């Protein structure tokens, strides 16, 4: 068979034909839990490599999608999990052990692992596309099953090409719609959805346009203290920079722009090691936005996760309060579920309005809308939409982990999650439990520590800690956790106890972390 050229009309037509099968496949899989089906998991971080370099242990983030192993609870579902490098067997055993009601040996027979033995910065999908023999083996596996589909972390042109090469549909957003997930595209979606978002400008391309936008915002609001300059394709807040207007007293528009231009090299970058020179080069390459920084003595950063299913239905599926860090609090560190009950339904409603606009444009899959929320003088809240993460993000795997482990459901009327037992469940999740002293700990060490201190998740109580990013622990001293409890305080306690136990095990003095 002739292979279509990536991006060619032939490939686009082939992809469209594959995607037409998704609605029927969705209905089949959703209603027949015992049906024969293969899920091909491609956890490729197909993003700008310059932005991924800012994330320590980024190549281990492929492991965040290991929650898809929970699909093995369906007795005739197979999972083919592809990675850049081989996953430590202890990590695989750990996830299989979490499957309640299914013998580990039965699940293991239905799990297939395949890796590229390649630690380079090339996205996983690109690595697979460059390996014809590996593709042939994947297609041989696919041919053994009556139906199959592919899932991914984020959908790019690489995933589209891979889906066409493998001949299976991709349950993810069409890459032709990726612009909707850029910072510029988000602002346009917010405008169409009628949700509140910061004053600013999108579709900017260079330093001159940044200067003009900053000057215009200052002219509109003489009391404006700060504005945010964002790369269109920044990741986890690492593509953001703050501009401070302190000390600028201009005699006119020309003088104002001149002073702003001279101050651009003094931007306060969220990413460590970022410089104006490299930031400007990326801005010219990918474009970006400028918008007012939302000020407030007390601020929260909630998020609404939504889904558009294969038949086009938009649904709100969770809310979170994000835990942010970095120089000005714009870098994602973790989240709590659910969001504060004071405003969670407001966030849910705003997020659903955004989801309905995206669904009307053909978006498919899971995504999250992030907000910055500030209290008002009358006791209410104002919620500014900031961005849409048009991919599986930092709130996706914790929520799906909770859902798979407890067989529970999200209640849209209350914004709470109830396990099958009827009990409400809460969690505190983080991808950045990290310390230099953790380096050298192996997944086996971690599990031994967890069992000894009784931190691990217990199916009978539906409480405990679920670990992820375990592959990053030894090299980067970095670990992810989902701490599940019966109330928010218990979830927070489990996180603090996990950190203190790890600190104690590696000899960190109490109170110094």
Describe the structure in your own words.
This protein is of the alpha+beta class and 513 residues long. The protein has three domains: 9-172, Rossmann fold, CATH 3.40.50; 199-292, no CATH class; 302-506, D-amino Acid Aminotransferase, Chain A, domain 1, CATH 3.30.470.20. Helix content is 34%, strand content 23%. It has helices spanning 9-19, 22-31, 49-52, 89-97, 104-109, 124-129, 132-142, 157-166, 183-193, 207-220, 253-263, 276-286, 344-360, 396-406, 443-452, 473-476, 488-506; strands spanning 37-42, 77-83, 111-115, 148-152, 200-204, 226-231, 240-244, 268-269, 288-292, 302-308, 314-325, 331-337, 365-375, 381-389, 409-411, 416-418, 426-434, 464-468, 478-485. The protein has an eight-stranded antiparallel sheet. It has a five-stranded antiparallel sheet with strand order 5-9-6-7-8, with helices on both faces. A four-stranded parallel sheet has the order 3-2-1-4. A hairpin with an 8-residue loop joins strand 6 and strand 7 (240-244). The model has no long low-confidence stretch (mean pLDDT 92).
In this structure, how is the largest beta sheet organized? Answer: 8 strands, antiparallel
Alpha carbon gap, first and last residue: 58 Å
Task: Report the strand count.
Answer: 19
Gyration radius (Cα, Å) is 23 Å
Q: If helices are DSSP runs of H or I spanning 4 or more residues, what is the number of helices? A: 17
CATH superfamily of the largest domain: ATP-grasp fold, B domain
List descriptors.
513 residues; alpha+beta; Rossmann fold; 3 domains; eight-stranded antiparallel sheet; 17 helices
